[in-house]
Fold this sequence. Notes:
- 28% of the residues lie in helices and 12% in strands.
- It is an alpha/beta fold.
- It has a 3-stranded parallel sheet with strand order 2-1-5, with helices on one face. It has a 3-stranded parallel sheet with strand order 6-8-7, covered by helices on one side.
- A hairpin with a 5-residue loop joins strand 3 and strand 4.
- Helix 1 runs parallel beside helix 6.
Amino acid sequence: MFISASTVLLPFVLQAAASPYQRQSVFKTSDDCPSGVHIIGIRGTLEDPGFGALQDVVDQLLDKLPGSDSYAIEYPASGISIGTDGKPIYNFFQYRASEAEGLARLSAEIEDFSEMCPGTGIVGAHVVGDALCGVTGPLFAPIPPISHDQTSSIRAIIQLGDPTNIRGLPWHMGNSTKGGIFPRQNYAPCSDYGDFWQSYCDDDDFFCDRGASVPVHLGYVERNRDDIVEFVVGRVKETHSGSFKYRVKSDGL
């Protein structure tokens, strides 16, 4: 789910299924493919249009990874506001529809780009967890994960304050002690992504730690900017040097 988590995928309902498949990428032919990496971002519900909280991270990555480009997924990002008491106010039906549209657009971009530019790595953020792991009930309509054939180009994933957080996973970063408000029911389809996935969650985050603080949730880039950039750049360079191996599950999940 997206609430306000972030991805270089850097590549979020009473609806029965996600919105129809829609081409998102600006690329028309393989001649347009970047020589670096394709940075995909999708803002959180409480963040500004574009890349939201990750804008500064994206700018630094474009500077450190020559030949790269970036693409921000457009979607409503609606259904949550902040009340006068500083606590989130939910319109769950609106949020669920917004989440479904964001997930559909992100999945379409990953699939389109990986087919158009199979030799270019993808770095991603936010709703990416739903795209890679799939969605299971009871609150959200079931959606299968993207196949490994479509995700083999992914080089790094960053999430900030993921509401589907579960403690103890290999990509968990931060000092949170509890799970998120929408804990993911099944991580098996994405269990191979731990080598290039970092999901930040700190104590008292309203969304990923079931805490009481919205400011904690909105402060991950300020607290972790350098670590995020270093991690993504390191994963990309390892992949280009051939020292990083992408693992595929033998059971096809």
